[in-house]
Write a structure and sequence with these properties.
alpha+beta, 81 residues, 4 strands, two-stranded parallel sheet
Length: 81
Amino acid sequence: MIQYVNDPGRLTTPLIKRDGEFEQASWDEALDLVADKLGSHRGDAFAALSSAKVPNEDNYIMQKFTRAVMGTNSVDHCARL
């Protein structure tokens, strides 16, 4: 079995690409960047896909976030496959 958690080469801090190069960043800086970029993809520019392998509560909160926060009904689920 591969031990990803203990791999010495795994990332332990966020990286942000600046001027074509990845640089270490704080968690707050990385989360702010993700929130800013995610906010610019509201409405029809956003869609969500969920899984049948997660609990119903996780699927519910994903569709609620997609509809209420991101402003789109573009939600799909793999259970019907």
